[in-house]
Amino acid sequence: MKEKDLDRWVERYRKAWESNDPKDIAALWTEDAVWYRRPDEAPVTGRDAIVAAWLEIADAPGETTFEYEVLGFGDGVGFVRGWTTYLTNPPGEFSNLWVIRLDKDRAYEFTEWWMEKPR
Predict the structure, then answer these.
(1) Of residues 95, 99, 94, the one with CA closest to residue 112
(2) Which residue of 16, 67, 99, 113 could cross-link 24, Cys pair, CB 3.0 to 4.6 Å?
(3) pTM, whole model, 2 decimals?
(4) Which residues form the SnoaL-like domain (predicted)?
(5) Vertex 101: Cα angle to 98 and 104 (nearest 5)
(6) Are 83 and 67 in contact (CB under 8 A)?
(7) In degrees, to the nearest 5, what angle opens at C-alpha 106 toward C-alphas 114 and 67?
(8) Among candidates 16, 4, 14, which has minimal Cα distance to 102?
């Protein structure tokens, strides 16, 4: 994996986040992928289950802004730090840390940590 591959995956993730199109979401994952929405919870397992879980908690298009930086990558794993701002009422800001394990252009494991910025 190269940094551009990881960037491309994050950009596709962001597109899926904005569209909530099941095809965009499914295109991110291998069939047997696991998504740890929190590292201390059981993962969502399998592409179809991930799409369904995503849509259950989907944000509305235009509801957030997102910036990120790649912290590191290699041997099929990438580390991304992100900043999410919710523009809703009340607004909120979150810091994110993602660990993404890729097989070509699809994630087979994704773990995220998110912390709300105190107001």
Answers:
(1) 99
(2) 16
(3) 0.92
(4) 10-105
(5) 130
(6) yes
(7) 40
(8) 4
Q: What is the DSSP letter of 46?
A: S
Q: How many CB atoms lie within 10 A of CB 75?
A: 7
**What mean pLDDT, rounded, does the chain reach?**
94
Cα–Cα distances (Å) from 67 to 31, 38, 39, 52, 76, in that order, read 28, 20, 22, 25, 22
DSSP helix/strand/coil, 17: helix
Could you give the maximum distance between any two Cα atoms of the chain, in Å?
41
Rounded CA separation 105/91 (Å): 33
pLDDT tens string 59-109 = 999 999 999 999 999 988 999 999 999 998 888 999 999 999 999 899 999
